[in-house]
Design goal:
Two copies of one chain form a homodimer. By secondary structure, chain A is of the alpha/beta class. Chain A folds into three domains: 84 residues, Arc Repressor Mutant, subunit A (Orthogonal Bundle), CATH 1.10.10; 132 residues, Aspartate Aminotransferase, domain 1; 235 residues, Type I PLP-dependent aspartate aminotransferase-like (Major domain) (Aspartate Aminotransferase, domain 2). The first copy, chain A, has 17 helices and 15 strands. In chain A, α7 crosses α14, α9 packs parallel to α14 and α15 runs parallel beside α17. Chain A is globular and about 85 Å long. At the A-B interface, α1, α5, α6, α7 and α8 of A face α5, α6, α7, α8 and α9 of B. Chains A, B: This is GntR family transcriptional regulator. Chains A, B: GO terms for molecular function: DNA binding; DNA-binding transcription factor activity; pyridoxal phosphate binding.
Chain lengths: 498, 498
Amino acid sequence: MPIPPDAFFLDPAAGLPLQVQLRRQIIAAVTAGRFRAGEKLPSTRALARHLGVARVTVAQAFAELVSTDYLASRDRSGHYISDSIERRLEAGPPAPDTPRFDWDSQLEGRFARAQRRDRERDWRGFAYPFVYGQADPALVDHAAWRDCAMRALGRREFDSLTGDLYDADDPELVDHIARHILPRRGISAGRDEIVLTMGAQNALWLVAQVLLRPGTSCAIEDPSYPGQREILRASRARILPVPVDARGLPPDAIPPGVAAVFTTASHQCPTNSTMPLPRRKELLARAQDQGFAVVEDDYEFEMSFAGAPSPALKAIDRAGAVIYIGSFSKSVFPGVRLGYLVADPRFIAEARALRGMMLRHPPGHMQRTLAHFLSLGHYDAQANRMRNAYARRRAVMLAAIAHHGLTLASPQASGGSSLWLATPDGVDSAELAARLRPRGVLIEPGAAFYADPVQGRGFFRLAYSSITAERIPQGIAWIAQALGEIAAAGPHLPLIRP
Amino acid sequence: MPIPPDAFFLDPAAGLPLQVQLRRQIIAAVTAGRFRAGEKLPSTRALARHLGVARVTVAQAFAELVSTDYLASRDRSGHYISDSIERRLEAGPPAPDTPRFDWDSQLEGRFARAQRRDRERDWRGFAYPFVYGQADPALVDHAAWRDCAMRALGRREFDSLTGDLYDADDPELVDHIARHILPRRGISAGRDEIVLTMGAQNALWLVAQVLLRPGTSCAIEDPSYPGQREILRASRARILPVPVDARGLPPDAIPPGVAAVFTTASHQCPTNSTMPLPRRKELLARAQDQGFAVVEDDYEFEMSFAGAPSPALKAIDRAGAVIYIGSFSKSVFPGVRLGYLVADPRFIAEARALRGMMLRHPPGHMQRTLAHFLSLGHYDAQANRMRNAYARRRAVMLAAIAHHGLTLASPQASGGSSLWLATPDGVDSAELAARLRPRGVLIEPGAAFYADPVQGRGFFRLAYSSITAERIPQGIAWIAQALGEIAAAGPHLPLIRP
């Protein structure tokens, strides 16, 4: 790619001849690696015009740089960055001698410190990726998405593609959610009760920022989604973990004085338990009595292939205390970065204003493409295909788990895309994960899910959303073998098990 | 569209016959407007299978609803929501009798309160839209974008489209920014010094959250971009406005003790003044002496058609105190929702972690499409086309302004996409705007740009990014006529002019 004239500028106040300035600028760009060997410079005529200097000034600077071997001149075709330059640069640029701004004292580092580091970005390179929440090329209807994206790129959709929507959402997408998706969860909501988000992660962030402030308390399930804990920590609220049991969050264990309770009632993350209806009613009654809001993350409802459909908490929320979070990350694909909040119009107005301030709106093109994907029936077809594939994969996985004598840690009633397992006594799932990596097996150790990571060491999550049914038995066999090796290596300290 | 079986569920604990529950659910959905006249219900067989009940239960419920005229039965083709239902619903649903959750006491309303309400969402319906920051179909290369989007939808790009990238960015896009865009501003940056954002708005939000906390102080230009003030208010930092002059922000007026200074040095928003090099050097020297970070919003550098190119503050920042913000909203289109931060690696690590928590990442598809748009040269071509069109429009506008005797409020040296005007003494630009709306003319009153809105009443912004050159003279004529009418209506209180 040729280097454009725009890459150059002169400083009339620099007190240096223009020709020298230009030379220094080219040398600095070459030594910093911005200009690379073989790249073509602008013509002397174009560069002189751009800089507002005489052409001879540019020509002199170029000639000088050719003589010092920074540039090479090829007859009639112009000037290029010299090929021999890379060798001379191996020593690297000299250390800067100016004082540096003291960033360490300016930054608390609280965001980077809270970051989760146990996920493998290059999971596609593993033969047995039991990773959660990624897209499977075999299940996503790429051709249908492409077709919908083409429609959303049409002439008539220019405004939704290019415009600044301020704080508005795509009306077709919101309408489809209100009329076709929420009713499946028993939820009836008007337009002023819905706001689009950049996935469930962004929805949780908005909720935390609107509801909580430093000093307020909130209750969360323990174990729970690690990203949720990061978000709540960043709000500086007090986080009170409530241990879940086989029926999810026990309402009578919620401490007094909390402003909000975060729950994954229909499909507890990561244990996959389902909260029965009496407990749901009790939770809502307590919300009314104690004055706390209930944040319901219904992140995976489309994947409930194993149990009978049960209504969302929001569906039986007559007082309007529930803030409902939905996401298209699991049923479409995570890269779509779209989800939604459903709540009282006053709450939605706040969340919408905050979203506008943070990022304006999710890209209109993604919204419109998803609206087409939904209204043309691709979403239903894809969710169906996923449910069927997941049911098959889970059956294969449960058989392999039984065959190898591994232990399920909780009832697995409603389906979903993962299982929650316990290690044999004394085995740390982080050690298991480390031992499995070289064999191409990726599992999720339990520590990240717990308020006290030690409590999670005896657990791990195995997702089947990105591994084929054919690969599952061998992957489980590797896990069983690694557990056997760890046991053979000697006794372990018993782990605390909640 | 047929109503799917998923829209229905039963509650075994409800203490009501299943047939009655099903009927109530259909009636509730119809009265709430979720099911609409003419929509087809699932077959009795499909619905019975879905709910796990006998088919006769569903058939009985349907028969009952046909007799009460909620449903209509068409021979052999099934059941439909009755056409006569809409007439019966005119009275609306009854008022709920349950106590409601007390949202008013839970919400501070601080985000919605801070929201800007002076922008017209339907600006496309106006004949003379002097609106800022929107895309012009005549200048955006829609066909090229479409072509790039098609590439980004190809089979080989499945992962960048669908995957959860955790906190990573598209490497091709970052590489292009580092090698081809930043050098034009004199900036040299490595990959660990760049993070992508959802436009400049999101970049400012990230910066404010990382740098500021309740109680810390920051200095901003006055007037300045209204969205920036909203963001800083939300961080609960102390905001100290510093009046700008014809050369932008005066460094010696920055109050002591600030943690950060926000500036639009190259192209002050909204006055369009350019900070000269000596002042830039003084600002950076003070940053080093007083220990504040400098946040440089270089939001429109591609549109500098009128002046010679000058380096960014970041280009001469040897201490590493500058956080640089770039955006593709102006040079590509605002709906792309992509921008970037360039700063010290420690700062970028914090901003990246925070972005991951807030929203993970901008959609991979938008990132990859933009990477193609840049690397295929469409960005350069489009920015060029915009610069040429803006130069022409501005010339037409300046001629019309001179012809009608309107007043420019500041020197307009470097180009851009708008002019900053002053009203004749005593005229409030909000009144002017209100008078112009019925004539199809949209202008931006100055109040929103000032820390003290009263100070902005004597100013207004006229952008030429979304109005054709042909329309400009008549639009300016309307403005002059409206000012004449206001003057004729009588004397006005003199406005404070900074």
